Amino acid sequence: FTQIPLGDCTEEQIFASVRPPVPFSLYNKALEYCRSLVSYGAGSEPTTIRDSQRNQEEAAGLLRKFALTLSASPADRDGLLLMEPYIAATVAYFPSDKQKDMVYSSRLLHYKNSLAPVEPCNPSNIRNVCFSLYSYENQTNYQPNLDFLLNTKGEQSNSVRWAWSLEGTLVHTNLQHTAAVNRLAASHNGKYFVSASDDCTVKLWDSREIGSPIQLYAVECTKFSSPVKAVSIMEGSKAFLTGEQCGKVQVVSLSGSMDMPGLSVTTSYQLGSPVVDFSRISEFCYLTATSNGKIYGLDVREKYPVFHREIPASNGSLRSILHSPGQWAVFGTSRGIYSSWDMRLLVETNSWAHPCHIEQGNNGINHAIHRMCLDPTQIEDPFFFSSVGDNEIFRWNAGSRIYDKVFRVNNGNNWSLPLERMLEGPLEFSSRIPEHVRSPNERTYRSLLSIPGTDFVLSGSEDCCIRAWDIDYPKNSKVLSGWNDLRTEPTYDFKNYSRKHGESSRSVYLVEEFTRSSKGERKFTARTGHKDCILDMAVVTPNTETSYLLSCSRDGAIKIWK
C-alpha cells in the first residue's frame, strides 16, 4: 500500500492496508456520518492547512460522539476510538471518495483548481502566489521574506556520478571548529558545503577550493545561541536550515557570491526541544524531529509548523529519522524502537523493537538507534540500514519489519541470532544515561551514508574508522581510513543463518570483518585518519566528474577524502 499513489487507492485498499480493528461496514458508516456533519466551507475543499486541521479536529469530536451513541459491542466502540486519528484525517483531507484529482503534500491537499501551486513554483512567479497565514497571536497576516527563494536562477544540481574509485586518500584536514562537528551538508550544485558544530557556529565552505595546494578555510561563519545539532541545505535555493540544542530552527539565506558571501536569518521557529535532524518533503517543506518525540512539518513560507505529530514517550527519546520522500518514514529512539509512518496520511502504521542477543538481555546494552539510511540498491522497496549497539548494522524491510542482513566487526567474539524484544517493559537503565557520560569505548556506528547508484554503504564509528560495506558482494568491502599497519588489513566473509519468522523460516546473512593480526588486536591510525568518533559524512560534487567524501568527528575535525 505504501508504494501505491494515494489517489489510485480505493477505500477498501486503504482500509485493508492498516489492518483495522472494526468491520469495514462500521468504518464506512462512521466515515459517512462525520463527512455529513463536518463544516468544510465553501466548495467543500480545504484552502489552507489550517482549514484541514480544523476539519480534522471537528471530525475527531464527531467520531467520539458517534462511538458513544453507537449500539454496538464495546470492542467495536474501542476500535473506532483507536482509529480516531486515521478516520479524522481521512474525513478532513478526503471529503469525497470520488475525488481523484488531488495531490497530497505536507502543506495541504492541493486540488488542481487550488490557488496554491501543484507543480514546483517558477521563481519568477513566486510573488503572484498567496502564501499568507493567519496569525492567531497578533491577528495579522504573516508575509514571509521570500527573497532567498528567488536566487535560484542558473543554479543547477551536479548529480553524483561515483565510479567508486574512492581509496581513502586524504585531501584536506581542517580544525577551525573548536567543538564537535555534528552535521555536514553539501549543496546540490556542488559549489559549497556547510558544517554545524557544538561551538554554536555554522561555517560555510567553498568546495571549489578542494584539491588546491593551499589550506581550506571557511568563507563565512554564523554564530548561534546554542550548539547546532542539525543542518540541511534547501534544494533549488540559496538557503539552509539549522537546528539547535535549545530547539530553535532557523532558515539562513546566502546572499552574494562565494567570493563575498553573506548569511542572514530569514525565518525562525521555536520547537522547545533539541532538534535531531531534517529531511526534505517538498520544495519548501521539511520534516523536522526533536528529541522529545515531536515530528513537525516546516514550510519556510509559513510562520508556524504546518503539522505536528508525536511518538509515544514510552518509546524513549528520538535519536534518528529516515524519510523516503512522499511515501514513508521511520523514526528511531533511544530504547531501540522503530516507528514507521505513512507520511501521506501522517499516521503511524507500525512499530517494533530492535532485537537483542541472548547474552546481553535487556540490560547492560544500549539499544539506541543512532543513524539510519536508505538502501541504495533497493530504490523502489522500503529497505533501510540502521546502526545499533555493538558495531552492528542491520538491513530492515520497513513494510514487513524483517531484517535480512547484518554487517559487523568481529572483535574475537562469536555472533548469534538476536532475540526479538517486546515493546512493553520498563525503560532500560542505559537508555536514560546521558550520552556524554557513557563509555567513550562504546563500539557504535554514529554515521551512515548511502550513495545512490552504488552498491556501498559508508559507516563512521567510535573506533575512528570509515568503512565501505559492499551490500551485494561483501568480500569487496574495505576500510577507507583508520588503519596504520597494512599487516592488519581486514578481510571480509559472510555466513547464512536461518531465522524463524512466524511459521516460516527466513535467511539472515551475516557479513563480518576480520583482521590478520595474530593477536586479534586492531591498531588505528595516528596519521591521516580521524582521532575521535566520526559523527557524520556527506558527498560534495564540485563538478560532474569529481566527487569528494566529507567526514567530521567529535574533536572538531573535518576531513576531505578522494
Automatic annotation (TrEMBL):
<keyword id="KW-0677">Repeat</keyword>
<dbReference type="InterPro" id="IPR045162">
    <property type="entry name" value="Vps15-like"/>
</dbReference>
<dbReference type="GO" id="GO:0034272">
    <property type="term" value="C:phosphatidylinositol 3-kinase complex, class III, type II"/>
</dbReference>
<dbReference type="Pfam" id="PF00400">
    <property type="entry name" value="WD40"/>
</dbReference>
<feature type="repeat" description="WD">
    <location>
        <begin position="174"/>
        <end position="206"/>
    </location>
</feature>
<dbReference type="GO" id="GO:0005770">
    <property type="term" value="C:late endosome"/>
</dbReference>
<dbReference type="InterPro" id="IPR015943">
    <property type="entry name" value="WD40/YVTN_repeat-like_dom_sf"/>
</dbReference>
<dbReference type="GO" id="GO:0000166">
    <property type="term" value="F:nucleotide binding"/>
</dbReference>
<keyword id="KW-0547">Nucleotide-binding</keyword>
<feature type="repeat" description="WD">
    <location>
        <begin position="527"/>
        <end position="562"/>
    </location>
</feature>
<keyword id="KW-0853">WD repeat</keyword>
<dbReference type="GO" id="GO:0016236">
    <property type="term" value="P:macroautophagy"/>
</dbReference>
<dbReference type="InterPro" id="IPR020472">
    <property type="entry name" value="WD40_PAC1"/>
</dbReference>
<dbReference type="GO" id="GO:0006623">
    <property type="term" value="P:protein targeting to vacuole"/>
</dbReference>
<dbReference type="InterPro" id="IPR001680">
    <property type="entry name" value="WD40_rpt"/>
</dbReference>
<dbReference type="InterPro" id="IPR036322">
    <property type="entry name" value="WD40_repeat_dom_sf"/>
</dbReference>
<dbReference type="GO" id="GO:0004674">
    <property type="term" value="F:protein serine/threonine kinase activity"/>
</dbReference>
<dbReference type="GO" id="GO:0034271">
    <property type="term" value="C:phosphatidylinositol 3-kinase complex, class III, type I"/>
</dbReference>
<dbReference type="GO" id="GO:0045324">
    <property type="term" value="P:late endosome to vacuole transport"/>
</dbReference>
<protein>
    <submittedName>
        <fullName>Uncharacterized protein</fullName>
    </submittedName>
</protein>
<dbReference type="GO" id="GO:0071561">
    <property type="term" value="C:nucleus-vacuole junction"/>
</dbReference>
